[in-house]
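ASSEMBLY PREDICTION REQUEST
Request ID: AP-0331
Submitted by: J.K., bench scientist
Number of chains: three
Total residues: 749
Priority: normal
Notes: Please return the full assembly, not individual chains.
Input sequences:
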Amino acid sequence: MKHNLILRVVSKILIPLIILFGLYVQFHGDFGPGGGFQAGVIFSSAFILYSLVFGLDTAEKIIPPPVLKVLASLGVLLYAGTGVASLLLGGNYLDYSVLAKTPLAGQHIGIIVIELGVGITVAAVMLIIFFAFAGRGRT
Amino acid sequence: MIEYILGHYNYWIVIFLMMTGFYIVISRGNMIKKIAGLNIFQVSVFLLYISIGNVRDGTAPIITEGFTVYSNPLPHVLILTAIVVGVATTSLALALVVRIREAYGTIEEDEIHNKDQSL
Amino acid sequence: MIETHLSLLLVVIPLIAAPIVAILPNGRLPWLVTLLVSLSCLVLAIMQLWNVADGSIISYELGGWAPPWGIEYRIDVINAFVALLVAGVAAVTLPYALLSVEKEIPTKQISLFYSAFLLCLSGLLGITQTGDIFNLFVFLEISSLSSYALISLGKQRKALTAAYQYLFMGTIGATFILIGIGLAYAVTGTLNMADLAARLPEVEATRTLQTAFIFLLIGVAIKLAVFPLHLWLPNAYAYAPSVITIFLAATATKVAAYVLIRIIFTVFGASLAFQEMHIHWLLLPLASIAVISASLVAIFQYNIKRMLAYSSVAQIGYILLGIGIASATGLTASLLHLFNHALMKAALFMALGAVLYQVGSVALQDMAGLGRRMPWTMAAFVAGGLSLIGVPLTVGFISKLYLILAAFEQGWWWLIVVVAIGSLLAIVYIWRIVETAYFKPTSHSNVTEAPLSLLLPLWLIVIANFYFGIDTSLTVSVSESAANMLLGGKP
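STATUS: Completed
Returned structure:
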């Protein structure tokens, strides 16, 4: 991939934009179309593009697979932990209304944290799947 | 009669896709092709949900002035979940095929069957 | 606080533990966490059954959204009974799992193995708890996906093709269920099972509804391995790791049977299913063929795990016979057999797992003389076999007794003949192993008894086989009140 100058330059321009768009979809998700699933996939596609252009080894240096595994678990725990937090604050599981002083603020906080958890897990899992398939058979 | 058939065109598309996918799953011996068939089969059901959730002249269910007819958002949410399930199934199936290929050296079902029988 | 959130905690504790276990280092720690989780689930399940045993219904609103808009966990005595079965089997299997898994699973996969196990447990418990039919589909897929992965971890390479085949059958089944849910939703506009049941009489007899019902029925039948759709089951059970065979054989098909009962009796109602659609003319012949043909096939198997898997197909036939009779006694028999079959299959597969641990094979010829080499294991196998045949004082006898009673009430003599033939064939295939193990000279001179950590859970289950065969007060009373509730009467 050393000589594909155009690919390298174009992807270097694109990747920050993709990540930015992913973040926009992520944090716009509570009052417009978007959310963790879509954002996670967009986010991971940036890294997949990077590893396609610059090689799997360089990509694995940036995000090592063990870190991905922790991130994937962390996202689920963030989701489940929000539910447990609302349990501890006296509501039902995933009842965001009790998370803040007013139910409206609580719903806002709840959905943002939940979607963040979803986004982290989806991005991490997509990358794990990609690395698992792409890295199979290498020694 | 014609109007009845054309008026339900979404169902015809769904049925066509569903049967196409199902036929591929049954008839092909190549494991990757079977996975493609399974995906078509699943996608047809996604279309079924989305099409029955649509309300004619309805907009996205966000309260705005001037719009009173909204599409039903619930099927979309359900299908988002079903898509995630589909992605998980597909990647698991592909992973299995990779390991089958490593263990048997082929992904044709009849060849695998022969290899198991010859042992 | 635990009291009000019981049903939720049953699902969420294993669900939270799964990602934690996945990042733990390989070794014995993941096992310990899994064991603790399953024990706490068992305690919660016992508390839950205790709470609803008087016929009350517990409703839990997820996220504080009132049903039918939000997801509702709706617990009556049937849910609690099946949940107790799942949690109980998991709690007994895990002490057994420690050594068996260390032997059969590569060390670097152990934490992921237990993580998938927890996901499967959480999915199965979720199916038993939820009152929302789409949520049920999601939990069904969580448990199925994790079981495909778990089955593929078997040592032989045939485990891979078995898992692949199961994945295809399972996914087609799940998609059929999805179609059924979609059509039912299109007609009624609701996904809550209790609400569906309330709204269906308004729209009864439309073609869409009948189609929805048939799609759901066939989808669940694939997951349940009803006779012509059972082809995935023998290979999946035969080549999966021992622990997974025990767990899935004892729980997964039972939970699918529970889903079938729920859909027929609670959601669509017995009148639509039996008076309009006449599904008993489908269920009863298929179940009878399953009992006889699967037992016949089992006789000719040389891999004993595969033999027991075919026997499972036959036993599912008995459960379906009870459902097909659709009387209170028939349903009682079904629910009893649900519980009892889990006990006997767990005992038999645990004994086989111990054989596999010590001998390294479960082929018939390798079991020669094991009656003297591994007396405790083989004695447990014989006890489980007696239960499978239906000898008095075992659980197998109780469920067959109720099934025959139900057939007698209807005056269906042919059904009693089917049960009798099934039992006779069970004697034949169990006897083959007894003969080989006790009356043939051994070829293994250095095989010894299995370690205690395998024997203790095994004998616990064997004792349960006899205990619930003698003191039937718990199982029969729960099954009877559940059956009455399903048929719309007072518990």
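REVIEWER COMMENTS: Helices of chain A lie at 5-28, 36-54, 56-62, 65-88, 103-134.
SIGN-OFF: pending second reviewer
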